[in-house]
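COMPLEX REQUEST
Ligand: magnesium ion
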Amino acid sequence: MTDTPASGGSSAAVTAIVLAAGAGTRMKSSRAKVLHEIGGRSLLAHALLAVRGVGAANTVTVVGHEREQVSAAITALDLDVVEAVQEEQRGTGHAVQIALEALGDVPEGTVLITYGDVPLLTSDTLAELLADHHASGQSVTILTAELDDPSGYGRIIRDAGDLVVAIREDRDADETERAIREVNSGILAVDAKFLGDAVARLAPTNAQGELYLTDIVGLAVDDGLPVGAHVLEDIWQTEGVNDRAQLARLGRELNRRLTARWMREGVTIVDPETTWIDSAVSLTADVTILPGTQLLGATTVESGATIGPDTTLRNVEIGPEATIVRTHGSDAVIGAGASVGPFAYLRPGTEIGADGKIGTFVEAKNAQLGAGAKVPHLSYVGDVEIGEGANVGAGTIVANYDGVNKHRTKVGRHARTGSNNVFVAPVSIGDGAYTAGGTVVRQDVPAGALTMSAGPQRTIEGWVQANRPGTAAAEAAGELVTDEQGDDAGE
Ligand code: UD1
Ligand code: MG
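STATUS: Structure written out below.
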């Protein structure tokens, strides 16, 4: 293999151009096509990360349609990309002219051209294309694929000696040419000097009246320069997104690849078909994922954790041996051995300490639980710190919002709070303190105290028979009373 940037070679020699100025009309979207996402990443981010993987010295992205949106997205990615603006989309050749102008001088070495809407293309494939290009000494090396249905693509025209002599666009092809199944993926490696010279010679002599980049192949052949194809078996990597159906298709294939990769790395995925894992998620061997689970964003999971079934987690950090069942969560941290769910909702800022618990029908927001702290049943805990080893009783509501502002609550270490409590924030319950069932805690509770807010229990004997005569409850109570008695008792 010759030197390629990916294998530690002269990275300074490669300039990448990513074409992303096209309209994407068939998406029928107010969002730029290249900003639609699969695997939690925009199509453009997939393309730019693939290019970054070969260590190009410069990367230029050609933007045009929905330019403000696309520019903002590029800036947000922070990938050191030069933008070239193509005001009017006059074809792929014109887009490359604009990219070269944005670079100033025609670069040295090799130019790698890719598309912003081809998301499955990998850095490895680009490195192989570059290696082939450099090893063969070709002026142009086209990444091609053999498709069962080549319609719509530019066809690779070879001569009797099987050498590539031209690329013919679908609209410009004749019957014989249309039958060719080898297509231009649009991705190619070109000698920079030749490219600079060739794009200046392009003419819009075709069905669309555009400057076709593909015409540089014919120009190279005319100049007696060698042209070749690098045929890619994995045709998914050459597929672009034009509409929502393709977006879904490629999204599913990306997911199939990601789940397969994690299974190879020792993750148990019971049902890969109903498990969705974003590109940036990080898993560890011996994680188990049950059906119907989506791990999104920058979620990370440590060894021995079990997630699912039917769980969606975005940007959640999950410690070793944690168990998360039927849960929806985002921007949260789940400690080692902690347990969550079934039917829990973890909102941003929630942190569960080691062996802690957020149980059934519990919503937590910006709640920090110490090690072993538990909120097991039917509660809302928001803007609260719950100390190590504390247990919050069933049906507790942290009233964090006074209608205008949010306030914080603190529950001390090893506190035991009763069922059906309301903690009216801001309020603090001391270390080791107890609260009685049904308490509305409005004032701070000192460490070690028992607090209760309900009055002493009062019992009125015979109240049901007197006030609800004839009801099932009265009958169950066992005493039949006359209407008169009932009326009297009711007064
Ligand atoms: C192009 C190729 C075709 C190839 C196919 C692969 C040409 C002439 N044809 O055709 O051989 O089989 O891709 O998908 O190159 N773009 C710009 N500015 C423009 C025009 C296009 O940035 O003025 C960008 C688009 O955003 C897109 C890419 O270039 O990412 C390809 O453009 P598209 O219009 O889809 O070209 P095709 O007709 O599909
Ligand atoms: Mg296209």
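REMARKS: The chain has a mean pLDDT of 94. The first strand starts at residue 14 and ends at 20.
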